[in-house]
Design goal:
Oligomer: single chain
Order of helices and strands: HEEHHHEEEHHEHHEEHEEHEE
CATH topology of the largest domain: Heat Shock Protein 90
Mean pLDDT: 82
Low-confidence stretches: none
Structural class: alpha+beta
Shape: elongated
Length: 411
Amino acid sequence: MPNSKKELNTSENNKTSPEAQILALQEANKQLRSENTAVLAKLERQEDVEERYRESQSRFEVVFYQSVLGQKIIAQDLRITQVNEALQQMMGYSKAELIGTRIVKFAHPDFIHDWKVLQTKLWEEQIPAFQIETCLVKKDGSIFWCQVTSILFRDQDVSLGFTILEDIDRRKALEQELKKLYDNQETIMHMVAHDLKSPFFNIKLAAGFLKENLEELQAKERGKQDQNFTYVSLISDTSDKALALIDDLLLIGEVESTYEALEETDLKAYIQFHLSNLSIGARRKDISVTFHSPEKPVYARINQDKFRRVLENLLSNAVKFTNRNGQVTINLKKEGKKAVLLVQDNGIGIPAELVASVFDKFTKARRIGTYGEPTTGLGLYIVKQIIDKHRGKVWVESQENAGTTVFVELL
C-alpha cells in the first residue's frame, strides 16, 4: 500500500510539471525580449552618438585641414600630433617632420619661455584658452612673428591643445616702423631743443643785464624808461618760459631712454641741502615751506642729479597752485624698508575728473598757476618717469579747493 500511494503522488507531480515549465519559459522569454529591446535601443542611441561624432569629426577636419591659418594640435608635453597644410607652408616643414616633434624645437631661443608659459596656463592652471605673440624659426633659418591662440579640449579622456597660428610679421614690421618714426621724432625734437637752448639763454642773459641797468638808471624821461622796462621784462619772461619748456623736453629724452646708476643717499640731508634754493618761488608768494623728518637719517637709492628735478617739480607745482600766504609741507619718513616722501599744499587742488591724468605727457590737467604762472603739462610726467627709473612709486591725492598731496615711495 505505501508504495502505491507514493507512485500516485509522483504521477500527479509529473502531470503539473510541464505546465509550470511552460509558464516559466514564457516568463523567461518575455524578460529576454524586454532586455533585447533595451539593448537594441541602446545600440541605436550609440549608433546615433557615433554618427553625430563622425559628422562632428568630419566638420572639424574640413575646418582644420582647409583653413588658411596655420593649425596644429599639441599634447601636454608640447608634442605636435596633427598639423594642417597652411602650417606646413608657414614653417617650411613637411607633415612627417612636424608630427611627433615638440613645438619648442622650432621656437626662437629668446622665446622658448613663451611655450612653457602656454603649457603651464593650459594644463596646470586649466585656463580654457590662452594667447601669446612669439617668434618661430622656419626650416630655412628665417624667423617670423606669429600670434598663437591655444584652446584646451578633451579627446578620449586626453587633454589636448588646439592651436591656431597667425603670421603677424607684417604687423610687427609696421609697429617697428612706427617706433622708429617715433624715435626719430624724439631725436629731432631733442636736437632742436639743444639748438634752441643756446640762443634763448643768450636772450635771457642780455635781457637780464638790460633789466638791471634800467632799474639803476635815473632817466629824465621816466615814461620812456618804464616802457623799455616793460619790453625787457616781456623778453625775460618769454625766455624763461621757452627755456623751461626746452629743459623739460631735453629731460624727457634723457629719462625715457637712459637709466643711470643709483647710489645710497641720506634723503634727509639731501633735501635739507637743496631746500633753500628750491624755495625761492615760495618766498616770492609769501608761502611758507616746512620740512619734517625723523631724527635719524632716511636712506634710499637715488640718482642725485635726476632726483633734484623730482624735488624741484613737486615743490614748484605745490607753490604754483597755492595762493599767497599759503602753506607747503614736505614730510619724509621711513616705512619698513621704504622711504616715503610727501609734498603737501593747501592750494586750489585738482578736480576729481583730472586726477587720473596728472602723470600724462602734456596732461589735460595742466592749468595756469594762481598768479598766472605758466605750465607745460610735463612736470608730473617727468617726475613719474624718473621715479619709475628708480623702481619706485608715485601717486596723487587731491581735493579741489582744499589742496594736493604727492606721495613718492623709494627703496
